Structure prediction request, 681 residues.
Amino acid sequence: MASLFKIDIKKLKGVGPKTALYLNRLGVYTIGDIIRFFPRTYEDWTSVNTLQEAYGQKDKCVKLKILSQSQVLRTRSGKKIYKLEATDGRNIAQIIFYNSKYAAQSLVKDCEYILRGNVEFKFGKYEISSPKIKKSNKKEAFYPVYCQTAGINSKKISSLVKNALELLPESIGETLPAKVINENNLCSFDFALRNIHFPKNRQCLEMARRRIIFEEIFIYQLGIKLIKENSKIKTDVKIKNEYSKEFSEFLPFKLTGAQNNAISECIRDIKGSEFSMNRLLQGDVGSGKTAVAASVAYTVAKNGYQVAIMAPTELLAVQHFKTFKNFFEKTNLKIGLMCGSLKSKERKILNENIENGNIDIVIGTHCLISDTTAFKNLGLIVTDEQHRFGVNQRAKLINKGVAPHVLVMSATPIPRSLALILYGDLDISVLNEILPGRQKIDTFSVDSSKRHRVWNFIKNIVNEGGQCYIVCASIDENENDIIDVNGYYEKMIENGFNKDEVKVLHGKMKPQEKDLIMSDFINGKIKILVSTTVIEVGIDVPKARIIVIENAERFGISQLHQLRGRVGRSSLKSYCVLISDSKSNDSKRRFSAMVSSGDGFYLSEEDLKLRGPGDFFGVNQHGVPNVNIVTSYKDIGIIKSAQEAADISKLDFSDPSFKFINKKIDSIFKRGSDSKSQMII
Ligand code: ADP
Ligand code: MG
Prediction:
C-alpha cells in the first residue's frame, strides 16, 4: 500500500495529463491518494419505495411501469418538455424531462424501471422531474458519489478508483494491531478500502466506515498522547510560594468557584514541580479567563520569574495591557507592552528592560517569542488557542535555555467527547460558571420583515448611550440574496441613521484602517458598526449592548454564539437579534438553540448533533484527524471507542502495524520534520 502513495496518478489507467490536473485540484496526486479519496455520499438503489413512501423525501428510488409513450410539450418560453405516465401498481405519476429527449425516449411503454429523484405532488398527481433511470432487472446496488470539480465528474472518478483498486495486492497488510481489531470488532483494512468505495450493501458500507473512522481517530489520539507523554519537559523554573490569595485582594470582584479551581489546577502544575505546565484554560467568551491568567502570572512573577502574555492582535494586546495595569496597580510589578507601533528606540529600551529583568510581565503579540526578545528568566507564557504554542516553538525556547510553563486560553467551548481528542496533549481546566451580575443576553429570531422594527430598537439603544454591532455575511453586493455590509450601510443612512455614528468594517480593509475604526468604536465615537465577522473575539466593549446578525442561516451555532459574545459585557441588559428568512429545519433548530440557551458548552453539543464531529476537527490547528469521510453525530460512538483504544499503557508497540502507525503520526504532527522538535517528542 505504501508504495502506491509514491506512484504518480498519471500512471493510472484512464488518467491523461488533463485528468491528472483535475485530480490534483481535488488533492489527488498519487494512486494511493485516489484510493484514500473516499466518496462524499452514496446513491442507494437497493431500497425501492412506492410513490406514497417516497413522496416528500429527496432522492428516493421508485419502481415504476411506464404507461404511455412520451409526449412533447412546449413551455411559454419555447423550451421542450417531455412527459409520460407511469405507475407503481397503486398510484400514477407524471414523469417529466426538460429538454432531454434521449432520457424520455429511453423509457419504453410497459417496461419496468427504477427511477430515482424527488417525488412531489402537483395538481392532484404525483410528479417526478428529471429522474435518474435504471432498468429494474439490473442488479440494485450502492453507487459511490465523489466530490467533483469542473472537468471531472463523480462517475469518472468512480471508474478511476476501480482501476486503482485493481492494483492493490490480493490482500493488503494490516494498519492496526490485531488486538485492537479484535477487541473492537473491526473489519480488515482490505475489506474497508474496497467497501468504502463499492459496498455490497449497507451493512458492508457501515463496517467499512466504522473501520476507517476508528483508524483515523485511533492514530490521531495515539499521536497526541505520545506528544503529551514525551513533551513532559524538565524545567528549572522553581515556583516555591503561591500568591493567589494575595492577588485576589487586588480584584474589584470575588473570583468564582470555577476561576479558583482553575487557578489551583495551574498552581498544582507549577508549584514545586520539576516539569513544566502545559495547560489549556477553556471558557466561554466573558467567562473571566483573564483574571485566572493574571493570578497565575502574579504567583510566577512574585517568585522572581518573568511572564509573557501573547495576544493574537495588537488591539487585544493593548486591551490586555490595560486590564493587567489595573489588576496590578497596587503592586510593584513592572508591566510592559510590546507592540508593532513602538518606535525602534522605544522597542530597544523595552527589549533591554526585558533582558535585564526590569520588566516582570510583558504583553504583546506573538512577536514576543521572536529572536530579538531575550528574557532574563521567563517562567510563564500565556497564549491563545489561535496560536497554540506548538512543539516547535517550545523547542526554540528550550534552545534558548528556558522551559517556561505554558497556559493556553481558548474561548471556543467544544463538546467533552471531542475535547480529549483535540486537546489530548494538554491538561484542561474549564470555566463553566456564569459570572455574578451578568444578565442573560436576550436573543430573538425574526424574519426580514421585522428589520425596521429592529432598527428602531437600535436607535433607542443608541439614544440611551449604547452601541451596536451588525454582522453581515458578505462585503459586496452579490446575487445570492446575501446582505452586504456596504449596501446595508447605505440603507441605514437612507433610514435616518447618523452618518457619523455608523461605520463599515470588513476584512478587505487595510489593517491600520481597521484598527482605527475599531478603536473609534471602543472609545465610543462610533455607535454602530456594520461589519463582516472580522470583529475580534476577545474585544471588550462594555457599552455594546445589541448585536444583529443578518442572514443568520449562514452561520453555525458555535459561530453565532461566538458573535453573540461580543455583547453582554456589562451589567446592562444586552440583546442579540438573528434575522433570517430561511425556512429550513436545520436553521430553525440552530436559532431555537440560540434563543433558549446562553451556555457555550451546551450549544457546542447541539452543534455537534447538527453538524457532526467533522466540522470540529476542521477548526483545530494542531494537526487534524483527517477522517476524509462525512461524519455525523451517530459516529460519536466509534470516535469514543477509538479514543479509549488508544491507551498507551495497553498497546504492544512491537506489533508490525506500528511501522505504518508511526509514519502516519509523523505526517499528521509533522514529527521529525525538524530535529529540534524530535528532541522533544
Ligand atoms: P474572557 O474569558 O472572555 O477573557 P474576561 O476575562 O475578559 O473574559 O472577563 C470578562 C469580564 O468579566 C471582565 O470585565 C472581567 O473583569 C470581569 N470578571 C472576571 N471575573 C469576574 C468575577 N469573578 N466577577 C465579576 N466580574 C468578573
Ligand atoms: Mg479574553
User: Anything to note?
Assistant: Residues 253-256, 259, 283, 285-291, 411, 435-437, 538, 540 surround adenosine-5'-diphosphate (ligand 1) (CB under 6 Å). Residues 443 and 498 are 26 Å apart (CA to CA). The longest strand covers residues 80-87. The chain is about 40% helix and 20% strand.
